[in-house]
Write a structure and sequence with these properties.
two-stranded antiparallel sheet, Jann2411-like fold, alpha+beta
């Protein structure tokens, strides 16, 4: 269960490197990507990355965001999400390894490609352990911040009731008032 919690936290952090509300992409340049990955122990600080690796990381991140939106009941605009994850798995050369007798997927590739493969392995662990469905992206379409739904009935829709939930409820109220 601890592995699953760490995997879920990594997925949330990775998706949230693109803050849609603040219009701030944490991966503005390849060196930003390498710094983020190395800070989490996924690659070495001297790993090389270029435009291709940066594009692959952004594709994986937005593919995961689509999957998290699906976990929150939003299906539109996310037709190729699992294919993005599969491409990152292929590029990371994921292989089966046994850690103390426990089977786990690990990237055989090194550098940024291997680090992205490790994120895919975190997705796989989370799916297998049943925690992935609790990772969601905020239903507020100008936010889409990733979060872990800790509610008992898995009904949380927004990253924050104080911010996005309140704003969305106010929008719905104004729309109802306008229509009546």
């Amino acid at each position: 269960m601890l592995v699953s919690k760490m995997s879920e936290a990594l997925i949330v952090e990775f998706v949230n490197t693109n803050d849609l509300l603040a219009e701030a992409d944490g991966f503005a340049a390849p060196e930003d990507l390498v710094a983020w990955l190395s800070e989490r122990g996924l690659t070495r600080a001297d790993a090389r990355a270029g435009a291709v690796e940066l594009a692959a990381a952004k594709e994986l991140r937005e593919g995961l965001r689509c999957l998290l939106l699906r976990n929150n009941g939003i299906e539109d605009g996310c037709t190729d999400a699992w294919a993005c994850v599969e491409r990152a798995a292929d590029d990371g050369h994921l292989v089966l390894r046994f850690d103390a007798g426990v089977p786990r997927m690990r990237p055989a590739a090194e550098g940024v490609r291997g680090a992205l493969g490790a994120i895919v392995a975190a997705v796989q662990e989370s799916v297998l352990e049943g925690g992935f469905q609790r990772i969601k992206a905020c239903r507020c379409r100008d936010c889409e911040w990733a979060f872990i739904d800790t509610s008992k009935n898995r009904s949380r829709a927004w990253c924050s009731m104080k911010v996005c939930g309140n704003r969305e409820k106010a929008r719905a109220f104004r729309a109802r008032e306008r229509d009546s």
